[in-house]
Amino acid sequence: MIGGVLVQRTVKEVLPAVTHNKEQLTKILETLNKQIEEKGKEINEFKEKHNIQFRKEPVPVMPPSEGPSKDEPQPSSSVLVKTES
């Protein structure tokens, strides 16, 4: 009995089929992982080539040498402060 179901096959008959299926699944998994990596690289290259950025992705940080210089005006914050006069 397997899970309450009566079967007519023995472990000797089933075990080779199960091990073969396990090996096949392992090979397929490796193949799919390689395909995922290739597609990821393809997508990244396409994004870089066409300068595509998603809104939720962080903006790449510029190295200090490429950042804004001290002579350029810095963007002000958007906080409004009430001053008493």
UniProtKB/TrEMBL annotation:
<dbReference type="GO" id="GO:0016272">
    <property type="term" value="C:prefoldin complex"/>
</dbReference>
<feature type="coiled-coil region">
    <location>
        <begin position="22"/>
        <end position="49"/>
    </location>
</feature>
<dbReference type="GO" id="GO:0051082">
    <property type="term" value="F:unfolded protein binding"/>
</dbReference>
<feature type="compositionally biased region" description="Polar residues">
    <location>
        <begin position="74"/>
        <end position="85"/>
    </location>
</feature>
<dbReference type="InterPro" id="IPR002777">
    <property type="entry name" value="PFD_beta-like"/>
</dbReference>
<protein>
    <submittedName>
        <fullName>Prefoldin subunit 2 like protein</fullName>
    </submittedName>
</protein>
<keyword id="KW-0175">Coiled coil</keyword>
<dbReference type="GO" id="GO:0006457">
    <property type="term" value="P:protein folding"/>
</dbReference>
<comment type="function">
    <text>Binds specifically to cytosolic chaperonin (c-CPN) and transfers target proteins to it. Binds to nascent polypeptide chain and promotes folding in an environment in which there are many competing pathways for nonnative proteins.</text>
</comment>
<dbReference type="Pfam" id="PF01920">
    <property type="entry name" value="Prefoldin_2"/>
</dbReference>
<comment type="similarity">
    <text>Belongs to the prefoldin subunit beta family.</text>
</comment>
<keyword id="KW-0143">Chaperone</keyword>
<comment type="subunit">
    <text>Heterohexamer of two PFD-alpha type and four PFD-beta type subunits.</text>
</comment>
<feature type="region of interest" description="Disordered">
    <location>
        <begin position="50"/>
        <end position="85"/>
    </location>
</feature>
<dbReference type="InterPro" id="IPR009053">
    <property type="entry name" value="Prefoldin"/>
</dbReference>
<dbReference type="InterPro" id="IPR027235">
    <property type="entry name" value="PFD2"/>
</dbReference>
